[in-house]
Amino acid sequence: IIPEVQRRRIEEEERQKELEEIYMLPRMRNCAKQISFNGSEGRRSRSRRYSGSDSDSISERKRPKKRGRPRTIPRENIKGFSDAEIRRFIKSYKKFGGPLERLDAVARDAELVDKSETDLRRLGELVHNGCIKALKDSSSGQERTGGRLGKVKGPTFRISGVQVNAKLVISHEEELAPLHKSIPADPEERKRYVIPCHTKAAHFDIDWGKEDDSNLLIGIYEYGYGSWEMIKMDPDLSLTQKILPDDPDKKPQAKQLQTRADYLIKLLNKDLARKEAQRLAGAGNSKRRKTRTKKNKVIKAAKMKEEIKSDSSPQPSEKSDEDDEEDKDEIVSVK
Prior knowledge:
Blueprint: H1 4-51, H2 54-62, H3 83-93, H4 103-110, H5 117-144, E1 156-159, E2 162-165, H6 166-175, H7 177-182, H8 187-191, H9 210-223, H10 228-233, H11 254-312, H12 316-334
Antiparallel strand pairs: 1-2
Helix pairs in contact: 3-4, 5-6, 9-11
């Protein structure tokens, strides 16, 4: 007969053992799995070590291929520029007329002042020449297809991973060319610049005159088309209190400034065309005057030669009279 107290203690010990077995069973299973996993990894590493590059080539074949178009311009041609920097450069490139002559301004706007002038010029020429080639190829392709376009946004090409719209870049460059030709490159002369055209009223909520139009054009030349905040912050342009007012309902805001700038640049283009026509007309008139003077000189020289000849030779009527008199004298003497 087992005493009650001892029997309870034995039962309690058995129950604790059962609980411990139940608790330890999942851990034992995990350990067994880990051991088997480590063993298989070791076998794999040993097999890779002895098999060499065969397994690597198999894994490479299993990898999915990269999708997308292949690069048309290899990265070697644009060494030193990331795709983000190329995007910034092209965005700033479109803000200036004659951008290849304003690479310093393009670099400032694109935050690429740490790049050398050689690298900037190389990238600028790559953009410009790529656009010209894309437009040329596109025009020849249109001729072959009969010129049916439909809805086409224009020819594009890629520089590294950046897609460039050739038509858009060249159109910006051409539209801003009159501004580049009209504004003096010398900083001191630029300060005294005044637009040479008669302009219509701006209808802004502040006083706006010809001087403000001139300063707006100077600001676009220096900071780029659309850089209204930079133009506003320049104290030399005297537009700080006039453009981009704090009240959004007051003009001129960015939209009105863009419209005014487009209008002023069109006036500059007309003025340049008029001056070029006058220059060509003046050159034509001067050529005509030169030809006329040459003809007059030739005619005068011919007349002078004729007069000299006539003076040196005796007149035919006098000769005949003298001959008649001599004949008469001879006849009388004979008689």
